[in-house]
Amino acid sequence: LAIEAQLRRALERREFRLEYQPKVNIADGRIVGFEALLRWNNPVLGEVSPVLFVPIAERTGLIIAIGAWVLDETCRQMRSWTASTGAPVKVAVNLSPRQFHQKDLLPSIRDCIDRWNVPAGALELEITETALVSREQEVDVLMRGIRALGVELSIDDFGTGYSSLAYLKRFPVQRLKVDRAFIRDLGQDDDSAAIVHSVISLARNLKLGVVAEGVETEEQLAMLRDMACDEYQGFLFSRAVAADKVLALLEVNK
Ligand code: G
Ligand code: G
Ligand code: MN
Ligand code: NA
What we know:
The protein is α/β, with parallel strands linked by helices. The protein is built from eleven helices and ten strands. The protein starts with a helix and ends with a helix. This is EAL domain-containing protein.
């Protein structure tokens, strides 16, 4: 209850910020983009994890306004990085199921990329499987609209939801993100290795990119490289960093 009451005022009090976790190409070790991750610092509660407050925002509908802020702030930041580096910086934004099913998502994405003059192909939206299981026809139309703008789509936390392989064929997504629960157990547990291997093969056969999440050890990275996984994210390379650290990371990456 305390969280919810504080959450209602958090936007107007400017308590949110974004941090950015690099996504790295496994073959050459270069940064290919970032995932924007929402952070909330509240004067009463301190730093609150999105694991706690995103579900509350989702249940109360506050996620619509918060999500709009995340999208706008991401595009503003992309614009500013491009002004500094001269090249587009790719960023992926998480969309919650409720946000995804909200009626004016498509125009709001279009407004945002127009307002900040961001190349649509540099923006990616991460959607969980849970958002895809209902209203399939609507989801299909919406995804095609997003793709028509040039924005990319990925399936987040792949393997944890109500996975139906059918939707991979049906929906126009570019990338799968293998949930970090499977990566965590790589090297410990043969079943996880088999699952990760299968997801990578599946992605390859469907001509989708594949990103491993939560890579923490060199051993995990070596296994993923052997499996020909495209990209990874994780503490091994970097945690999510503040916006002003991104340029420094890109500088090293040159
Ligand atoms: O790194 P982290 O603790 O930030 O993320 C925890 C969870 O919160 C993840 O499932 C992540 O997808 C989610 N999350 C982080 N940022 C956002 C956001 O901007 N919007 C939504 N809907 N979820 C987010
Ligand atoms: O669900 P989503 O993939 O959006 O969640 C991203 C979450 O994963 C964030 O909470 C982020 O901080 C966390 N994360 C990123 N890299 C690692 C990692 O290497 N290990 C662990 N345990 N969590 C990670
Ligand atoms: Mn994500
Ligand atoms: Na994930």
